[in-house]
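Field notebook, page 345. I keep forgetting to write these up properly, so this time I am using the form the group agreed on. The chain and the ligand, manganese (II) ion, are recorded exactly as supplied. Prediction of the bound pose follows.
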Amino acid sequence: MADAPALEIEHLSHPANPSLLTIQQHVMREQRRFPNATGEFSWLFSGLTLATKMIAARVRRAGLSDILGSAGATNVQGEVQQKLDVFANETLIESLSWKETIGLIASEENDRLTAVHYGSPGAKYAVVFDPLDGSSNIDVNVSVGTIFSILRCPDGCADDPAKWVLQPGRKQVAAGYVLYGSSTMLVYTSGNGVHGFTLEPSIGAYLLSHENIKMPARGPYYSVNEAYRDSFPAPYPAYLDALRKGGLGKKYALRYIGSLVADFHRTLLKGGVFLYPPTADAPGGKLRLMYEANPIAFLAEQAGGIATDGAKPILELVPDAVHQRTPFVVGSRDELELFHQMAAR
Ligand code: AHG
Ligand code: MN
Ligand code: MN
């Protein structure tokens, strides 16, 4: 038989189009960095992404469905729960409960931990989250978000939930947020840089849009609720005056949205500083360590920024309660260095 004609091949310059990289593919690629990864982490992650797509769909039509306003109950924080808080919380718990690799869930909205597959041999991770961040902004159509943190079960944690969940932020396996803003964006880190994915609503996929985000070393904004200024301890008032009077060699503008995820996302992309200092109403700070400060601090450090409680790195703090609060200062290197120089005086 005559030789078959030689078939030409053309090498594809891969990746042909990085923006077709989905979050699932990215997580799979990232977890190959962990020698004993078995795909469980990406399986867990798909529970998070599914739930946030459902939350996004609700947020996008909030005024049309009976999802605005108060749910008529108060949560463990003593805050009136919004209907969307409850919906987001229940959706995340339901979606994650299908993942056998998850042992425990801790949520801002639940007083106690939720045992998912706690006690089963395959349960390796705890997921800690703020299901809906920025609740006060829901009814006025301002950006809100979901914040999550993932912790692995350390040795001997199987029968000790506190040992599993109350770990310092440095131990997070991954962390991130979804911002329900002008677009729906998921930003996460698993310790190898910070990466952003934008939800393509027509296909329901989070596609890579911001690879390896780096926080500028200095920014144009400071972000704080100055209504509480009179109760800020030193050096916060003097620091804000220094920024405003050009202490870093330039003028600043103030931006404050009142949703941590939105205020941080702007700080991550544009630089500057976000602060929630101790106040008269919240002498230990308002923001929660486990599911607000820790995940945001992990992202900030991975992007080249700094995050402290006004003195110590957030990620070094050893939690003693799931809902404990902390003062929070996070942002660019230059603004944080100036803050800590003033704090040291
Ligand atoms: P949550 O809606 O999850 O309770 O979080 C709200 C937090 C945070 O998103 C934001 O930075 C801060 O509350 C705003 O607090 P003030 O309204 O006191 O400024
Ligand atoms: Mn919050
Ligand atoms: Mn919340």
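OBSERVATIONS:
- Residues 85, 108, 130, 132-133, 135 surround manganese (II) ion (ligand 3) (CB under 6 Å).
- Residues 187 and 196 are 4 Å apart (CA to CA).
FOLLOW-UP: compare against the apo run.
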